[in-house]
TrEMBL record:
<dbReference type="InterPro" id="IPR028973">
    <property type="entry name" value="PhnB-like"/>
</dbReference>
<protein>
    <submittedName>
        <fullName>PhnB protein</fullName>
    </submittedName>
</protein>
<dbReference type="InterPro" id="IPR029068">
    <property type="entry name" value="Glyas_Bleomycin-R_OHBP_Dase"/>
</dbReference>
<feature type="domain" description="PhnB-like">
    <location>
        <begin position="2"/>
        <end position="128"/>
    </location>
</feature>
<dbReference type="Pfam" id="PF06983">
    <property type="entry name" value="3-dmu-9_3-mt"/>
</dbReference>
Length: 132
């Protein structure tokens, strides 16, 4: 299991990652736009980042531009992301984290594997991901 931060931006993720890459001497990796994915977003949003990672010595986090139907405010711009290899473990973890909280995206199969997003009963956002 691996747990790391996942930052959400309001359309300026690429600009922020460029800033952080320069600041921390890191590289932007695994860059994917909404154009690359089969996700329904307005055409003006297709070039925004659906996923990217910043990697360097001592730094590794993920980031994306939240879709227009996901309003951001102070407090929900960071999620904890959990990557697992075991589907049953992912299902159970999502069930327990979302219990008493709020489910934003049901844990289900996606193009890349299984994914779900929830806010736990303490107000912490979680993204559970099991690759294929």
């Amino acid at each position: 299991m691996k747990i790391q931060a996942y930052l959400a931006f309001n359309g300026n993720c690429q600009e922020a990652l460029n800033f952080y890459a320069n600041l921390f001497n890191a590289e932007i990796k695994n860059r994917q736009t909404y154009e690359d994915m089969k996700i329904d977003v307005p055409s003006s949003f297709r070039q925004k980042l659906q996923h990217a990672e910043l990697k360097g010595k001592g730094v590794h986090f993920m980031a994306y531009d939240a879709a227009p139907d996901t309003p951001l405010n102070n407090g929900n711009q960071i999620n904890m992301s959990v990557d697992l290899n075991d589907l049953d473990e992912g299902k159970q973890l999502f069930k327990e984290l979302s219990s008493g909280g709020q489910v934003h995206h049901e844990f289900r199969e996606r193009e890349w594997g299984h994914f779900g997003r929830c806010t736990d009963r303490f107000g912490i956002g979680w993204m559970i991901n099991v690759d294929k």
